[in-house]
Amino acid sequence: NQADKDALDKALEAGKQVTANPAATQAEVNNAKKAIEDALNRINGKSVALSGVEVADNGTTVTGKAAPGAEVVVADKDGNVLGKATADKDGNFEVKLSTPQTNGEKL
Q1: Which own/partner contact pairs does 94-98 have at CB distance under 8 Å and 24+ positions apart?
Q2: Which helix (H) or strand (E) covers residue 47, if one does?
Q3: Which residue of 15, 28, 94, 96 pairs with 24 in a disulfide if CB–CB is 3.0 to 4.6 A?
Q4: Handedness of CA 81, 82, 84, 90 (dihedral sign)
Q5: pLDDT tens figures, 77-102
Q6: What is the reported pTM?
Q7: Which of 17, 14, 102 is nearest to 55 (CA)?
Q8: What span, in angstroms and rounded, lies between the C-alpha atoms of 100 and 55?
């Protein structure tokens, strides 16, 4: 639903701000990661829960863990698909984005 998507967008934005801050504490980084994971679980929990989700500093990939064999789709705030990948046998995934996301875009 839209509220869950908005929560994810907010968590991603906050996470990008924390990772861009060289003075951020480990607790702030951990809290930002947990907020992203919680928001993703609310959206995807009905099908596949994701964890450890990170956007590369250069904005070209999204990595994390999902159920082995799960399809992971990354879309922009308008629902346009930016990339897809299938989690490997250990649940690791790496989605290569068609357009780098480096300016705090909402995914």
Answers
A1: 94/61, 94/62, 94/63, 95/61, 95/62, 95/63, 96/60, 96/61, 97/59, 97/60, 97/61, 97/62
A2: none
A3: 28
A4: negative
A5: 888 889 999 899 999 999 999 888 87
A6: 0.54
A7: 102
A8: 10
